[in-house]
Amino acid sequence: MARYVYDFIEGDRSRADVLGGKGANLAEMTRLGLPVPPGFTVTTDACRAHLATGAPPAGLFEEVNAHLREIEARLDRKLGDPGDPLLLAVRSGGRYSMPGMMETILDIGLNDATVGGLAARSGDERFAWDSYRRLIQMFGHTVHGIPPEEFAHELAAVRATAGPAGPSAGQLRDLVDTYKKIFARHVGHDFPQAPHEQLFLAIRSVFASWNSERARIYRRQERIPDDLGTAVNVMAMVFGNLGPDSGTGVAFTRDPATGAPGVYGDYLADAQGEDVVAGIRNTVPLAELARLDPVSFRRLGEIMATLERHYRDLCDIEFTIERGRLWMLQTRVGKRTAAAAFVIAAQLVDEGVITADEALTRVTGAQLAQLMFPAFDLTGAPEPLAVGVGASPGAAVGRVVFDSAAAAAAATEPVILVRRETNPDDLPGMIAAAGVLTSRGGKTSHAAVVARGMGRTCVCGAEALRIDPERGEVAVGDRVVRAGEVISIDGDTGRIWLGEIPVQPSPVARYLAGELDAEADPLVAAVHRLLGHADAVRKLGVRANADTPRDAARARRLGATGVGLCRTEHMFLGERRSLVERLILADGPAEREAALAALLPSQRADFVGILAAMDGLPVTIRLLDPPLHEFLPPLAELTARVARAEALGEDPGRDGTLLTAVRRMHEANPMLGLRGVRLGLVVPGLFAMQVRAVAEAAAERVRAGGDPRPEIMVPLVGDVRELAAVRDEAERVLAGVDGAPEIPIGTMIEVPRAALTAGEIAAEAHFFSFGTNDLTQTAWAFSRDDVEGSFFGAYLERGIFPVSPFERIDATGVGRLIRLAVVEGRAARPGLTVGVCGEHGGDPDSVAFFAEAGLDYVSCSPYRVPIARLAAGRAAVAPTTGTSDSR
Ligand code: PEP
Ligand code: MG
Fold this sequence. Notes:
Bound molecules: phosphoenolpyruvate, magnesium ion
Strand order of the largest sheet: 14-24-23-16-17-18-19-15
Radius of gyration: 33 Å
Oligomer: single chain
Largest sheet: 8 strands, mixed
Shape: elongated
Number of strands: 33
Helix content: 40-55%
């Protein structure tokens, strides 16, 4: 028969699935011989059975009673005994900590008869009646949903009339009567006097609290599965509210905010745990306990040292002192800030408690990301104006501007570029701005990808914003913000405030940029140490996506060992756009060749710069990818210009020609249209010009004494014949350039057909690089520019996926294509180098997947390089942690 109840003396911490975290750790402390009040745990299995059927599983309460009898025998005290009653605490405790989300009921067992016994045994009548009123209040609220204010209101009235010593026993007895009336009025019957009935109802209501709305919301946020259920811990009550020699507190074995060594906590004399949580009275620092009760303080210190040694990590505890006797009510490996996580992991290595490998498992890429960005100091911050998608982290404050030119003009003053959405024309503005805010698009929109690439703070898809660039204003509800007004945006949480919120710079970012010494402070030293170890153990290389020498140099400082993706489209914007227009409008081969010849020198110069910045390291240069019409003005704009000219009887001139070209090139689905390798095959000479520029740049670097290592990458290949044709042409060009080193030619794998035919494609490719942005888009048939702003919210809400597949690699679907391509590619070409250069390359969870799938490197935006280094180190020491970075 299934077993649903375990005594604390039976379990241990390895059984958290069944006993919940709290129950498993209470059992562990009991095993260690620490002072834990006797008790037992009702399992998560029982909860799940209860949730499934709405009734407790058969035999549950008989089992509870049997365990209860054992505890009664051990304590020589009985539940419901009017002379000397045993009282019980009933507490929730799931597999993962969900602080304050589920229910607790204390003082179970008190009734009109036992309250006298408690008074006699404690010698404190006030305490007994106060405990009884607490029970009715907690039970009424938890089991029957009576609003807590109803009780709180009456309590406040009694307190107001009481003297400085608090309500008298008589007042509290009257209060109990009032509470009973409130109870009966709400529930329709009297407060249950039978202690066992109280206990069973309390257990059932704790089960039910698993599905309370706040618990569900918390689980969604923390990505805790909904089907785990909670365990219920039933424990003999110990009282911290029995006078000045009693009290209750919480403590951490180190400072959970900074990681600083030394115990840290709060204590409240003559109180129960929930008084601390409710903030009814102010706690004192734990150090005060040394003065109030030195014996208990010393014992507590010993216990904390025992726990830290045993758990080999920061522990937090809840304790109660009952008339000078110390009791442990809870412990667990404590939550901590990102900074404390790094500092504590490094300290524990120094103290010989854990190995450097283990230290890597104690910190996450997401924590390092948090530490790298400046953060807002939110003390006293007002309500946010609106909330969008936090798309590129950081805290940015600046004056609102609505176009790229205004952003670039305000060079000396920080500005926030506010756009409905951004396009490549906004690049100069994005570079100049401190942050970017859009009302449309999600985490893979243009604004998000480019901003992340530049390390620029970005909030996207703030749909509440009605942006009117023509009038120079943005409206949110009835509040209108005009150009020049200051706003603050938080790229982590997506929050937007009116006015300036103070910002704290990040010492970790300054250290990573080479501006601070590794020993600057304990946090920086810990990051230095752990990243160094990650580099030593990781098998996965980390390159950067960089399109400019500046980005390449920055990426190198941040630890990148190459450029995994140099997108060449940015090189055709700005002043060079007219040259691309010339190419598009060319009438005949001669004009086209002249246009290409005009583009060649600037392309070559771009590559020289990047190869110099990454001297001695690989630089993967991708041939032109986007549809050419992206370089022309938008159709609507041209149509309007031409119509205006015609209405005025003027000759539309060049606009007329451009309009004809844009109409000719218009595609309903440009992402699936004439782009990538297809462009190279239908626009004669385009790829050849780029290949020549790469080879000539490399030759120039060789002549200058450098060690250039370019690689040429072909985008959007779906069939080996596409690649073979480009490769033939490229090799002819390369053979004609003197002095260039060997230049490998490889392909992106970014459409499913390429993955499915990877064996054939590998025959023509020196390397593969997964373009997981397009691969996700094409495998799911999700338009990467649209879906995050349209239905992803609903999908996330309904749990269809826990996180956007553009953010974290979809390991089962897209990941399967990747695994297949790796295996079949390497079978066809042993030793084939395989990397990834989509946005996922900088996502810690995805990095773990890529390591496991056997890739050689990941490539990500420069600012994410340290995060990828850490994630790759973690993947090397704990490959089974898989996608667990987020928790
Ligand atoms: C990709 O598709 O993942 C990729 C890196 O290319 P882009 O984002 O430029 O399409
Ligand atoms: Mg792509």
